Structure formats: C-alpha cells, structure tokens
Amino acid sequence: NEDYVKIVINPVRSIEVTNTPTKTEYAEGESFDASGMVVTATYADGANKVLTDYTVDKTVLTSEDTFVTVSYKGLTVSVPVTVTAVASVESIEITSNPTKTAYLAGQTFDAAGMGVVAHMSDGTSKEVSVYEVDKTVLEVSDEKVTVSYEGKTAEVAISVTAHATFAEGQSELVFDLENGLYTPSPTAGAD
Predict the structure, then answer these.
(1) N or C: which end of the chain has fewer CB within 10 A?
(2) Count of H-run helices and E-run strands, the chain
C-alpha cells in the first residue's frame, strides 16, 4: 500500500531582525513601533521565512529600557532602542505678579499680566500659560491665590476689601485704573 503520509520535521533554529525598525529612539512613555522591522526565521534545512506572527515583550517604554525582545516559538532576539527620560516639573515660580492684586469682595481673580515659570528636573525652565488657580470669586478673608501646574504650587498675594467706605468729606467713588478698584474721593468743593 502506497498510501502514507510523509512527515518532515523542520524546526526553527534561529530568528534574527534582518531589517531594524524605522524608529529606534523614543521619549519615555511612548509605545514601541515595529514599523519597518523585518524578523526572519531560519529553519533546520536552511530555509528562511519572514515572520509576521512574532511578539514583542514591551509596549510602553521607560527610560530604563535599552532593548525590546522579539519572540517566536521560544526563540528570542533583542532590538536595541534608546529611550530618553521626560523631564518632570520640580517647582513653579510666579515671575511677575498679575496686573491687578487689589479686589473688592465678590470680584473674580484676574491673572492678566502674571508670569508663571516651571522649573524642570533636567535643569531647564519653561513659561507656563495654562495653569489652575484655587479661587475665582474672591472674599474679604482671601490673602492669596494658589497657582497650580502639574501638582506643583506657588502663591500670589492679593488684598480683598469688603466695599468702599466714606470718611467725612467723601461722597463719591473714583475708579483707579492702576489697581482696578473704586476708591472714595473727596466731594468736589469740600473743604
């Protein structure tokens, strides 16, 4: 009987990266990108085959990573990568106070003119234009506004008065452009 099945065992002997990935330099937190990478298996009979069903051991990279391991049927090969640490915010600083620091109770904090700088872990500094403040509508008890950026804080001193009070001989309010407040002024013609 000539009906038989011939089984040929031809195991994979090795794998190698025959074309490195297009991208090998990353910032910490980026995902490994295998685009452009070609992984080739060499079989016991010497035949080669380009693989598409390999796995990689890392997706999101950290600054400690120096390679990514590619695996196929128990065999591995390393792909070198360079991962740069992302600088974190060490502190923030108010470099210039806002134009307006004196308020009447009930007014809203105005950050116009305020300069905020973040000091980074790598020794650099950068201006910050998007940050949070802890107060919007101000009360007489408020003496400061806290500015926050990426978990770091700095304070801006402010003053808040209840309302304008009139002393003897004062009967009108004048708007002071410098501090943005109405202040009492002497009545015209008063002695």
Answers:
(1) N
(2) 0, 18
